[in-house]
Amino acid sequence: MKYRQLADTGVFVSELCLGAMTFGGSGGMWEVIAGLDQAGVDAIVHRSMEAGINFIDTANVYSLGESETMLGKALAGRRHQVVLATKVRGRMGPGANDVGLSRLHIMQAVEASLQRLGTDYIDLYQVHRFDVLTNLEDTLRALDDLVRAGKVRYIGCSNYAAWQIMKALAISREQHLERFRCTQSYYSLAGRELEREIVPLLQDQKLGLLVWSPLAGGFLSGKFTRSSSDDAGRRASFDFPPINKERAYDIVDVLNRIAGARGAIAAQVAIAWLLAQPVTTSVIIGARKMQQLEDNLKSVDLLLTPEELQELDAVSRLAPEYPAWMSAAASDDRLPGQERRFATTKPPARS
Predict the structure, then answer these.
(1) Which pTM value belongs to this model?
(2) Domain contains 325
(3) DSSP reduced 3-state for 110
(4) Please, what is the Cα angle at 282 between 279 and 288, to 5 degrees?
(5) Going by fewer Cβ within 10 Å, which terminus of the chain is more open, N or C?
(6) Does a structural domain hold residue 49?
(7) 209 within 8 A of 186, measured Cβ to Cβ
(8) Structural domain of 7
(9) Residues 6+ apart with CB under 8 A from 226
(10) Residue 87: enclosing H or E segment and its boundaries?
(11) Active site amino acids
(12) What is the CATH number of the domain that holds 81?
């Protein structure tokens, strides 16, 4: 296992992060997504740590708190060995204030998460989605208070638009508040929209990227092709995240071809592509079966060649959108030597 620095924190996390969304299984969609009992959770967590994973991510809303509770039990006596991340924002009860990013809800939610996780601090506390009803400064001040109180070490966001991240960073800078150090966002070969606005922002502001759903909800596992599908997979009953399936089938064809030539599987190639992207800090992997975990763990040892990376880029590349195509077409670039292209251009004739 290799480790990468989380933004500028000086904290190093494993290239693979264990996602705990499969832990438990109570309530609505969690019965489809999750399903691991405590014995299964213990086995997955302990094997991950043995393989060198020191980064584990969950959320209070996963299985309505069960994920945090089961993870806390699995980490008993070993809590100090991991960078532990969880999230706040989702609905955790029927009350009007049992949801959102108000100071009221954040303060209640963090105490509940700490109790369920069996710890007195959270290494990375993330806001799960943007809350249009709450003043952003209120949210950031509440998170800053948690850091100052020692209940949270660092803060991050998840599923934010580029302008929302930048606005939060500007407020934190102006008000001298703790700032987001990373975003947890969807990114995969079948979903590269992040590259339009968020990736440039992350590079400019030196933020980390934690990737969720690297296999596009299982579609890039290699089991979904135009002629076959995985009826037992999550995609069969929970078709998320949304993707262009015709385009994704072309991607899977390339993944399977590269995997076959390298003695690997498509999922490993898909994760290896993400790890080859300079903006990636850690890729979140989930598993309901030990074999899934073992397969994903091998992805860190698969180094794709420049030719393989180019082939994957070509089949999955985004079509240019405005203003990107305008910038690419501009003739007034300021790169060194650019001016020589026009040095011999004759001035327009006078009428």
Answers:
(1) 0.92
(2) no
(3) helix
(4) 140
(5) C
(6) yes
(7) no
(8) 3-218+277-302
(9) 249
(10) strand 83-88
(11) 62
(12) 3.20.20.100
